[in-house]
Amino acid sequence: MSVYIGEFISLLFLAFALGLDAFSISLGMGMQRFRLKHIALIGIVIGLFHILMPFIGIVLGHVISGQIGNYATLVGGLLLFGIGAQMFFSVFNNQKKRLIQPIGIGLFILAFSVSIDSFSVGLSLGISGVKTALALFMFGLASMILAWGGMLIGRKVHGLIGAYSEILGGSILCGFGLNILFG
C-alpha cells in the first residue's frame, strides 16, 4: 500500500512540475486581460495537450523499454534530469520568448509548445513502467489548473514570479531524475 501512495505522491509532484511551465506562460498571458470564458478554454486545451503528449511518450517509452532492457531506468532518469536542467537554465537565457496569441490555431501552437516537455517526461515514464491512466489524468489536471491560476494571477500581479516558477519546476524534474538514477 505504501508503494502506491509513494507513486501517487511522486506523480503529484511531477504533474505540478510539468504544469509550472504552463503556469509561467499563463502569468504573462494573464496580463492581456482575456475574458474568463477564454481563460477557461485556454486552460482546457493546455490540459488536453498535457494528456496527449505524455501519452504518446509513454507508448513510445513502452516500446523502447522492451528493446533496451536493463538500461531503461538509466535512460529515464537521464531524460528527466536533462529536461529539468533545460527548464532551469532556460530562465537565464537573455532572449525574450515571443508570445503567441492564444486564439484559433495560435492556441494549439501555444498548448503544443508548453506541453512538449511532457512528451519527454512521458517517454521516460513509459520506460520506467508507471501507471499510465493516473499519470495522464494528473498531468492534464495539474497543468489545466495551473494555467488557469497563472492567467488569473497574471491579471492581478503582472508577472512578478514567472521566472521563479520555471526554476522550481526545473529543480523538481532534476530531483526526480536524480532519484531515479541514484535512489
Could you explain the architecture of this structure?
By secondary structure, the protein is mostly helical. It has one domain. It has helices at 2-30, 36-68, 72-90, 105-128, 132-157, 162-182. The longest helix has 33 residues, at 36-68.
Key features?
manganese, transmembrane helix, 183 residues, ion transport, Mntp/YtaF, globular, mainly alpha, manganese ion transmembrane transporter activity
Beta strands, count? 0
Instruction: Tell me the overall shape.
Output: globular
User: What integer value in Å does the Rg equal?
Assistant: 16 Å
Category by helix and strand content: mainly alpha
Low-confidence stretches: none
Number of helices: 6
The string of secondary-structure elements, in order, is HHHHHH
The helix content, as a percent range, equals over 70%
How would a crystallographer describe the biggest sheet? none
Strand content: under 5%
Integer average pLDDT: 80
Number of folding domains?
A: 1
Determine the N-to-C terminus distance.
19 Å
Pfam family, one: Mntp
Keywords: Cell membrane, Ion transport, Manganese, Membrane, Transmembrane, Transmembrane helix, Transport
Membrane topology: Multi-pass membrane protein
Function: Probably functions as a manganese efflux pump.
Write the layout of secondary structure elements.
Layout: H1 2-30, H2 36-68, H3 72-90, H4 105-128, H5 132-157, H6 162-182
Helix pairs in contact: 1-4, 1-5, 1-6, 2-4, 2-5, 3-4, 3-6
Tell me briefly what this model is.
With about 180 residues, the chain is mainly α.
